Amino acid sequence: MNLYFDFNATTPLRAVAREAWLRANEAHWHNPSSLYQKAAEAKQVLELAREELGDVLGCEPERIVFTGSATESNNALFAQLSEKLSKDKRVLSSSIEHPSVREPLQRWFAKRVTLVRTTKSGEMDLEDLATQLARNNVALVTAMAANNECGLLHPWRAFAERCHEAGVMFHTDAAQWIGKEPGDEMGASDFITGCAHKFGGPKGVGFLVLRDEREVLSHLRGGPQEQGRRAGTENLPGVVAMVAALREAIAERETAACRQAALRDEFEKTMRAQFPELRIIGEGAERLWNTSMFVLPQGDNRKWLARLSQRGVAVSTGSACSAGHDGSSVVLEALGATPEEMRRVIRVSGGWGSGEGEWTALAEAFGEVGKDLGVGG
Amino acid sequence: MNLYFDFNATTPLRAVAREAWLRANEAHWHNPSSLYQKAAEAKQVLELAREELGDVLGCEPERIVFTGSATESNNALFAQLSEKLSKDKRVLSSSIEHPSVREPLQRWFAKRVTLVRTTKSGEMDLEDLATQLARNNVALVTAMAANNECGLLHPWRAFAERCHEAGVMFHTDAAQWIGKEPGDEMGASDFITGCAHKFGGPKGVGFLVLRDEREVLSHLRGGPQEQGRRAGTENLPGVVAMVAALREAIAERETAACRQAALRDEFEKTMRAQFPELRIIGEGAERLWNTSMFVLPQGDNRKWLARLSQRGVAVSTGSACSAGHDGSSVVLEALGATPEEMRRVIRVSGGWGSGEGEWTALAEAFGEVGKDLGVGG
Question: DSSP letters of A180-219?
C-alpha cells in the first residue's frame, strides 16, 4: 500500500510540469540575459510565463519577481521593508504564521511586531486588527491566506481591505492557497508569496508579488536579472514548469474542491466513528478542501506516524517545517492546546485527485493502528 | 548553423543530470524533512549527494549547504559574516570579482573593503595581498578561482595559504572553476561558492561550503532544513542532478582540458591571422581551457554579436551578469583598457565536447562578419 496524504508538505511533480521543464531545457536553456537570438527567445518565454502567472493572480506581470522558494520570498520582503521603513513603524501579524514568516519578521522587526489576537477558530481577529491598525504606527500587516497545518482559510480579502482603508500595506503568504482556492483576486494584496512545489510544480521555484514594477527588492545582489530585483541566472525551466503546474491545478480546482471536501468529510466521519473522542481542528470553519487536522484521543503522534509509515501511509504531525523539532503545532498552540494534546495531533492532506479508495484505506489504516495501540472504539 | 560558445554564461543540461532529476521526481519527491519512510529515503538520497559533492571538493559533507544559486551563496556568506564580525574588521577583495561578490560586499562591508592590486595579467597581486594582510585589520579575503570573463586561473591555493598563515579566512567563488579544473583540493578554502548550471546541471541550484558544521548561516529563516542553515523545502531533484552533472563533467575534464585548449589555441591563431591587430586577454597566462576573450581591432561588439547571432553563433560581450548594462568588462577595466577598447571585446567560451568543426566554423563566422563590417585582413 502506498497512501500519500501529505500534500501540504510537498506534492509529486505533475506530468505537465515535467514536460514543460524538459521542453525548456531542450529549447530554452540559454541565458535569458545574453544577447543572441536563442537568449532573446528564452527571455520571451520567461516573460510569457510571468504574464500567465499575472493573469492567474490578477496582478500586473511587472509586479512578479521569480524566486527560489516561498521562504526566500518571505525573507526577502521583510529584509527589504525593514530597510525601507522608518524605525518607528510597526508590523502586525498573527501567532499562526508559517516559520518562514515568523522567523524573518522576528529578525528584521523584532519588538516592532504586534501579534493580532486570533479567534477561537484560529484566524486573525478582524476586530482586534481594526483596533491595532488604529492604535499603532503600523506600516504592514502580514497574514497567511490558508493555514498549512489545519487548512483554515483566512479572510485575507477583508484583511487587505481594512489595511488599505488604514493606508497600511498588506502581505499574504499564499503558498497553501494558490492552486487550491480561487486566486484571481490575489492581486488585491500588496505583496503575495507562493511556490511551485505546493501545487505540483518543481521544488526550488517560487515568486514574490510586489506592489508595482518600481518596488525595489535587493536581497540577492549581483547581475541585473528580474529588473534588478533578484540577481542570478533565471531558472527558466523551473518557472515554466511552475506555471504549467499551476494552470493544471487551477483547471482541476473546482472539481477537486467539491469532490475532495466530500471525501475528506467522509474520512472525518469514519475517524470519529472509530475514535469518538477525536477533536478535529477547524471543524465547521472554512478549510482547504484537502486538509484534516485532528487530535487523537491517545498515543504519541510519532508512534502513530511510525506505524502508519510501516503500512505505507504518509501523513504528518503538522508542518514539515516544524516537524523534526518538537513536533508541536503552532496552530494548536494558538488555540490553547496543552503540550500533551499537541503530542497527539496528526495532519492529513490529500491531493487534487486522491481517490475514494485512498481516503477509505487511510481511515482503515488509522483504525488498524488504533487497534495496535489499544486506542479507539 | 547553431554554434553555442557561451558556456561561461550557462550550459545545456547534461543527459545524466536530466535523468537524475527525473528519477528523483519519480522516486524521491517527498519532503526530506517529513517523518515517514519515503521521506527518510529522500533524506538519505540528499545526504548521499552531499557526501559525493564533499568528495569532489575535498571537504567534509557537513560543511556543505545547498542553495539556489552561486549568487545566493555569495550574498548569504557576506550577510552572515557582516553580522558576525566586529565592525572594525576589513575584507580584502579584487576589482575583477563577479557582480554577485562585488555588490553584496559593497552592501555589507562598504568602506571596509580594500581592493588588492591586480597584476598586469589580471590576477590578485600576491605581494600586495601580503602587505594588506599585514597592515589591515583583515578578517576575510575573497577571490574568485577562475575568471568568468577572460578565463584567467587565479592562484587561489596560494591565496588560501597566505590567509591561513595570517589567521584570516579565505573565500573563493569557484563557479567557473568547478567541473573544469581539478577541484579536490578546494576544501582548503574556508568558504567555497559554486552552482550547477555552469557545468551542465540544472538552473536554480548551487551550494556554499562553510568552515565547519558548526558555522551558522541564516539568510533564509524558517524551517530547520539544512541543519538550520537554509530554510525551505530541499530541492532534492535539483541537488542530485547537480551532482550527476558534476560527476560527468569531472570525468570528462582531463580530456577536455587537453583537447579543448588545443582547439581554442588554434581558434585564436586563426583569429589572429584574420585580424592581425587582435588583442587576446590573458594570452600566455594560465586560463580556463574553454575561454577566449579578445579585443577586436574595429567595430562595436554589439554589431558583431548581432551579425554572429544572425549566423546562429552565440558568443558574448562579457558576463551575462553585466551584459545588458553597458557591455563593459570588469576585467578589461581592471587591466586598464579604454572605454573604446571595452566596446570591442568579445568572449567565446566552449564546452567539454565542442567539436573541431565547431571551433573552425566559429573562426570562419568571425571572418565573414569581419568582411561584412570591413574589418580584418
Answer: TB--TTGGGSSEEEEEGGGTT--TT-EEEE-SSTT----S
Amino acid at B309: S
A347 with A238, same domain: the answer is no
Residue B227 sits in the same domain as residue B276: no
- Weakest-pLDDT range from B47-51, B188-192, B279-283, B366-370: B279-283
Q: Domain span at residue B273?
A: 3-10+252-373
Nearest CB neighbour to A99, from listed B68, B231, B237: B231
Q: At which of A247, A273, A308 does a domain end?
A: A247
DSSP A89: -
Residues in chain B closer than 8 A to A144 (CB atoms) = none
> Of B38, B219, B235, which has the smallest distance from its Cβ to A314's Cβ?
B38
Confidence of residue B319 (pLDDT cuts 50, 70, 90): low
Question: What cell does B247 get?
Answer: 560527476
Can A195 be counted among the known catalytic residues?
no
With beta carbons less than 8 A apart as the criterion, state whether A159 and A130 touch. Answer: no
Cα-Cα end-to-end distance for chain B: 24
Q: What is the phi/psi pair of residue B152, to 5°?
A: -55, 130
Nearest CA to B97 among B28, B146, B42? B146
Residues A274 and A200 in one domain: no
Same domain, B296 and B229: no
Q: What is the mean pLDDT of chain A?
A: 94
Among the partner-chain residues B204, B231, B317, the one whose CB lies closest to the CB of A238 is B204
Same domain? A111 vs A231: yes
CATH of the domain at A20: 3.40.640.10
Tell whether pTM > 0.90: yes
Catalytic residue set of B: 321
State the total domains in chain A: 2
In terms of CA atoms, which chain B residue is nearest residue A231? B71
Cβ B35–A305 below 8 Å, yes or no? Answer: yes
Residue A144 and residue A176 in contact, taking contact as beta carbons nearer than 8 Å: yes
Statement to judge: residues A182 and A331 lie in one domain: no
Query: What is the C-alpha to C-alpha distance for residues B14 and B22, in angstroms, rounded to an integer?
Result: 12
